[in-house]
Specification:
By secondary structure, this protein is α+β, with helices and mostly antiparallel strands. The strands form eight sheets. A seven-stranded mixed sheet has the order 6-7-21-8-17-11-12, sandwiched between helices. Strands 4-3-2-1-5 form a five-stranded antiparallel sheet. A hairpin with a 2-residue loop joins strand 26 and strand 27. The longest helix has 125 residues, at 891-1015. It is elongated, with a radius of gyration of 47 Å.
Length: 1288
């Protein structure tokens, strides 16, 4: 099909694979992979996309592809990645693939100079291009800008952020020390805030928004760093393959021996806060040799140091010390920072045991005393005070005077461990706050006109075990995804609508319900958590139960038992919950949620560190006591909500982002192993879908990402134009410029206030404008020529308008005269109407008198007397008429006199008749004899005629009765059809809404399963699908066909599922859709189940079957699949091309708006024998612009054999006729049924068979059909049967 053209079909590992369509199924397409001939698989129609002619070609901007879809996007990124081109545009959005190796010269100073001042699209995609565009937008629009760097953990967000900052400071800095400080601040922040995770060796465990501030001259004057949500739990606990913050390992690996001895530092495996995770260093060959053996853990000695091109603990320690010096931190302050870090390490080694007394408290273990002393020494605390504060808690009672009584409550071992960890977290978090504060102090600024902010915050996270930190991080990413949707999709479409561009609407998934679930007042998870923290007895289980209870029917929230992973199925309902995020479902274990949400220390510990002997430590905790209110001092444990604090910070951040212009960098992780040159298509596709890039492609297919107001273009290029042209209005100036350049009108559009460009076209325009002077002179000449032409056209239009106005005025004057004449005539007629009527009646009475005179003349006796009476009556009538004419009489008076005259005439007439009868009596008696004979014959004739008329009247009455009955029945039938149609439309609407909801749920299930697939490591990790996937889609019964791999798996119960088997299972899962299920359900009702028939089998059955019902079912299914295929072709057509039309637009529009009516089987069989012919005007889309007046419209002829088309003709002026017959030309013919076309309701559309056959024969249709029959290409129809009979 489609001449064997390649298409992209889904693949479980690569995302998509090339293949060709070989058959059309019910809601699927049969695909044959290009690299595996004679092997086929089924793919859902909506997951198959057109492929580029050259699949190995790459483009810098995905909007430059001929086909814009997710498959071509993924392939373009794949091809570029294989060539080490890690950056790609989607309009103005940059996609960055993490290469996991250093690409030579990609970020050199020469590259920075090359991109400086260049428009987006003039050079290859780069993070420097986005940074420069942001700077130029700030400069032109006089508006602060933001760059949102987003992506999963390990996608390269931190590195791209550093490159943006470096570019801005090097390109637009003031060449002072402050530029270097801004860049050097990053290593310090990374040392204290970054750590190794299972997915990223240098993962930022905090969020930061770095602002580069500029003065009125657009030069860098300073910066400011805002930080969000440091992951404090990592200080005390890490998983086996993860590490604590880099500073701990760098201090152990790279600190000089003097510092090491003074701080009592040893290898990482000797510290509790480090040895439960990975204790290996990051080092290269050279630096590994410089690290002393006694500083390495046994794990590091056994397995060696870890390798990463960007990390080196020993070398990074030295670079961090240099960075500290450059940003203004002296040796004393540096020493203080290291001392507090070492103090936290020693604090972690303090252990407790049961006291063994009746108090139920605990005491320090003997081996922990030295660690306690080290900690107290390094933090400036008294050892005994620290011991007491860790093992007891101070409470104040309300009794015992105004100040109350101090009571020391012994702590259990677990409580003491929690107090120790809380102190370590508080000290380190305050230390980190101090580091950020000192970083901000090192590049201060007095005034700032604008700023460029770069947001680098932890990406969407999903592990086997997710806690409060992942919950907050993913909540933040939900908000950022919503901001992306608003800024790129929603606001973009609103702007198009406001400017009147007429771009089609693009739908996207709104995640507001997920955000409300987390942050809504009173019922949101964060508020429920805060409420739990305020209770006297807090419990994680009670909090979790409250969440499930208040959101038991929420689609986004469910219980852990519904997870796709086995490890989560073991979690009880009150120990966790699952949230379906935009990127997939994540299971959160709520253990320690309540504890982690409280950022306050016990009073005894807080007082202890606040009164430290060391001024540096004391300074870290300055102001903390002032934050507590009097109620908290009365003896209650203080409570500072981490979640609410983060929510407030996040909302302030989003307000700041919304007040600035925005650019987006979407970072993508190419593989889970973090190795170079490995492209995992399926998981990259998932990242692109979750980040909204597919929706952006749909928008950009008809969108205009680059735009500029008219006055800005005018200001940008007026210096290149002569003074004569700069006097023009900005809009006219732009119009003249574009016309003169000869730009393709499809590449730009004029809005109300701006001009909009297709992707990459603004850069071409800018390059043309800034070309050599000779070209500019030619350009000016063209502009002048266009201006003269446009002004001459305007003069012509004005002249025509004046002539039209003159003609209109003349027409209106004549119309006024005619109106006046008519009104006057009407008034006159209304006034004299009674008199005129009276005269008319008098004259009619006079005519009756004249007939009486003739009768009088025929009398033989009494003629004089009767004549005198008639003359008197005649005189009275004349006087009556004269009186009306001479005097003004009312209608009543006229009628009264007229009535008297009528009575006189009637009396006179009766007298005349009496006289006449007397004279005729004798004559009548004489003729009676002969009349009787004639009368007898006449009566016989009349009797016969009367009987005939009676019979005719009876037949007509029967026909009329029958017609009326048929009319009543027809109206009843139409009413019933309308009622059924209304019910059907309501049902179809409900089905569509239900299908849309099911599709949304299925898409969410797909993302959840993909996320689970990434985490799963073995067969036991992954849960097999169950029929009721979720409460929202319980109505969908899924009957799965177990794959061969599953059968093999059942035979080998202990074997592990391979990645290919898991991916195959995922592919089978994706192949199910609501449409397929609905079709299968409907097939159970029908007599003939054709869902498994191939396209060719249907065609053969239509050509050979003698079963009328089977034939009708096959034809219906055949044309339904044709509709599916043509809908797929229309969706996957080339950019900027019109969709091919197989029928006039009025027919296709009617079919879209009116669903087909349901008919009984008898009606279908009857309809199958009906031959109908139609003709309607037809203008092809490509011709309607060439001939706007439709002077050369064509005709579209159709012959319907039953409900389906058998022959089709298109006749266009100056073109050869287009003849099509069923069977040979199915792909080019109208695929709609007769009911769907609405032709039977079009007045004048149906024609006689003779009219169709005359045109068909004249255009060579007989020969065309005969050749199709001889070549066995024509389907058996009424037309083929008639032609074969004629030929025989």
């Amino acid at each position: 099909m489609e001449d064997g053209k390649a298409v992209w079909a889904p693949h479980p590992l690569d995302g998509f694979q090339l293949g060709s369509i070989i058959d059309i199924g019910v809601d699927t397409l049969t695909i044959e992979p290009l690299n595996q001939k004679n092997k086929t698989f089924l793919a859902p129609v909506n997951q198959v996309f057109s492929a580029e002619e050259d699949s190995k070609k790459d483009v810098e901007d995905n909007c430059g592809l001929m086909y814009l879809n997710e498959a071509t996007l993924l392939n373009n990124i794949r091809v570029r990645y294989s060539k080490d081109k890690i950056y790609t545009y989607v309009a103005n959005i940059l996609i960055a693939i993490n290469p996991y190796f250093d690409i030579p010269k990609l970020y050199s100073s020469d590259s920075i100079q090359k991109y400086k001042g260049k428009s987006l699209g003039t050079l290859p995609p780069h993070v420097f291009a986005i940074a420069d565009k942001t700077y130029r937008d700030m400069k032109v629009h006089k508006l602060s800008q933001s760059i949102i760097v987003s992506g999963e953990s390990g996608a390269g967000k931190t590195e791209n952020t550093k490159f943006v900052l470096r570019y801005l400071t090097e390109s637009y800095g003031t060449s002072q020390d402050i530029d270097e400080r801004i860049v050097e601040a990053n290593p310090l922040l990374e040392a204290f805030g970054n750590a190794k995770t299972v997915r990223n060796n240098n993962s930022s465990r905090f969020g930061k928004f770095v602002e580069i501030h500029f003065n009125e001259k657009n030069a860098v004057v300073g910066g400011f760093v805002s930080h969000y949500l440091l992951e404090k739990s990592r200080i005390c606990m890490q998983s086996k393959e993860e590490r604590n913050y880099h500073i701990f390992y760098r201090l152990c690996a790279g600190a000089p021996e003097e510092i090491r001895q003074k701080f009592h530092l040893i290898s990482p495996d000797n510290f509790r806060y480090l040895n439960r995770g990975c204790t290996r260093y990051f080092a290269n060959k050279e630096s590994d040799k410089q690290i002393l053996q006694n500083r390495k853990s046994p794990e590091c000695l056994k397995e060696g140091s870890m390798k990463d091109p960007l990390l080196d603990d020993h070398g990074d320690f030295n670079r961090m010390c240099v960075a500290m010096k450059k940003i203004g931190l002296g040796d004393v302050e540096k020493f203080d920072l290291f001392r507090v870090v070492a103090g936290v390490l020693h604090l972690g080694n303090v252990d407790f045991e049961e006291a063994g007394s009746t108090s139920g408290g605990c005491v320090l273990k003997n081996k922990s005393s030295q660690s306690l002393d080290y900690c107290a020494e390094l933090l400036g605390l008294d050892s005994d005070d620290l011991r007491v504060s860790l093992t007891t808690r101070v409470m104040l009672t309300t009794a015992g005077g105004a100040k109350g009584t101090v009571i020391k409550v012994p702590l259990k071992v677990e409580q003491a461990n929690n107090a120790r960890d809380a102190l370590a977290k508080a000290v380190y978090s305050h230390l980190f706050d101090h580091v950020v504060k000192r970083v901000n102090q090192c590049f201060p600024f007095v005034t700032s006109s604008f700023f460029i902010g770069v947001l680098d915050i932890a990406g969407f996270e999903y592990f086997e075990h997710n806690s409060f930190e992942q919950f907050c991080i993913n909540y933040c990413n939900e908000k950022l995804q919503q901001f992306f949707n608003e800024r790129i999709l929603k606001e973009e479409q609103e702007l198009y609508q406001k400017e009147g561009l007429g771009v089609n609407e693009v739908h996207y998934v709104d995640n507001q319900d997920c955000i409300d679930l987390i942050e809504a007042k009173l019922v949101g998870i964060l508020d429920i958590l805060d409420e739990e923290n305020r209770l006297p007895q807090t419990s994680d289980q009670h909090f979790t139960s409250a969440v499930h209870q208040k959101h038991k029917d929420h689609f986004r929230l469910t219980i852990p038992r519904k997870s796709k992973l086995t490890v989560h199925r073991n979690i009880r309902d009150d120990e966790g919950f699952i949230i379906r995020h935009f990127a997939g479902a994540v299971c959160y274990e709520t253990s320690k949620f309540v504890e982690k949400n409280n950022d306050a220390l016990h009073m005894s510990l807080e007082s202890l560190v606040s009164e430290s002997k060391d001024p540096f430590v004391r300074k870290l905790f300055e102001g903390t006591n002032n934050m507590k209110d009097t109620k908290q001092k009365a003896g209650k444990l203080s409570f500072i909500s981490v979640g609410n604090k983060f929510k407030t910070q996040l909302n302030l951040l989003l307000e700041k982002l919304r007040s600035t212009g925005s650019s987006f960098i979407r970072c993508v992780k190419p593989n889970l192993k973090m190795t170079s040159h490995q492209f995992e298509g399926a998981q990259i596709l998932s990242q692109l879908q979750c980040s909204g890039m597919v929706s952006v492609l749909d928008l950009m297919q008809g969108g205009f990402p680059s735009r500029a107001p008219f006055h800005e273009l005018y200001n940008m290029y007026k210096n290149y134009m002569p003074a004569k042209l700069t006097r023009l209005d900005p809009r006219l100036f732009c119009k003249a410029l574009f016309k003169a350049l000869g730009l393709n009108e499809n590449d730009y559009k004029f809005g109300l206030t701006k001009v909009f460009f297709r992707p990459g076209k603004f850069a071409e325009f800018d390059q043309i404008m800034k070309s050599d002077p000779e070209h500019l002179a030619v350009l000016v000449k063209r502009v002048n020529h266009w201006l003269i032409c446009s002004r001459w056209k305007k003069v012509q239009w004005c002249s025509l308008s004046v002539i039209k106005l003159k003609n209109k005025m003349s027409y209106r004057a004549l119309a006024c005269i005619k109106m006046q004449k008519t009104v006057r005539m009407w008034l006159c007629k209304r006034k004299h109407k009674p008199r005129i009527d009276g005269v008319v009646k008098g004259k009619s009475l006079k005519q009756r008198v004249n007939r009486m005179i003739e009768v009088v003349k025929a009398l033989k006796e009494g003629k004089a007397e009767m004549n005198k009476q008639v003359q008197d009556l005649d005189s009275s009538i004349d006087s009556f008429i004269n009186k009306i004419k001479c005097t003004i009489m009312t209608r009543v008076e006229i009628d009264k006199e007229y009535a008297g005259l009528v009575r006189r005439s009637e009396q006179l007439l009766s007298g005349l008749q009496k006289k006449k009868q007397e004279e005729e009596e004798a004559e009548r008696l004489r003729a009676i004899q002969r009349e009787m004979e004639r009368e007898q014959s006449r009566r016989e004739e009349e009797e016969r005629h009367h009987k005939q008329e009676e019979e005719d009247r009876r037949l007509k009455a029967e026909m009329e009765m029958k017609r009326k009955q048929e009319e009543v029945e027809r109206k009843k039938q139409e009413e019933e059809e309308r009622r059924l149609q209304a019910e059907l439309e309501l049902q179809i609407t409900a089905d569509r809404e239900e299908d849309a909801l099911k599709q949304t749920l299925l898409e969410q299930e797909r993302r959840d399963r993909e996320l689970a697939m990434r985490i799963a490591r073995s067969e036991s990790d992954l849960i097999a699908d169950e029929a009721p996937m979720d409460t929202g889609i319980k109505s969908v019964e899924v009957k799965r066909v177990q794959p061969v791999a599953a059968a093999a798996k059942s035979a080998r119960p202990e074997s592990k599922m391979t990645m290919e088997e898991m991916a195959k299972e995922m592919s089978d899962y994706l192949a199910r859709s609501p449409q397929v299920q609905a079709t299968k359900a409907a097939a159970g009702i029908k007599k003939h189940d054709l869902s498994k028939w191939k396209y060719a089998e249907l065609r053969d059955a239509i050509n050979t079957s003698c079963d009328i019902e089977l034939l009708a079912a096959c034809r219906e299914e055949f044309h339904r699949r044709l509709k599916v295929y043509h809908a797929w072709k229309s969706k996957n057509k080339k950019r900027n091309t019109e969709a091919e039309q197989r029928a006039p637009k009025s027919i296709t529009d009617y079919a879209e708006q009116n669903p087909p009516q349901l008919h009984s089987r008898q009606q279908e069989i009857t309809q199958n024998r009906t031959q109908r012919y139609f003709r309607i005007p037809f203008i092809r889309p490509a011709d309607q612009y060439k001939d706007p007046q439709n002077k050369k419209k064509g005709w579209w002829y159709a012959h319907f054999d039953g409900p389906w088309i058998a022959r089709q003709m298109e006749l266009h002026p100056d073109k050869a006729p287009i003849l099509l017959v069923a069977g040979k030309d199915d792909m080019e013919m109208c695929e709609l049924s007769l009911d769907e076309t609405g032709l039977t309701r079009k007045r004048g559309a149906e024609i006689l068979p003779r009219q169709f056959e005359e045109v068909w024969e004249r255009c060579g249709g007989v020969t065309y059909l005969r050749n199709a029959i001889e070549n066995k290409q024509a389907r058996p129809t009424y037309a083929t049967a008639m032609l074969q009979n004629l030929l025989q």
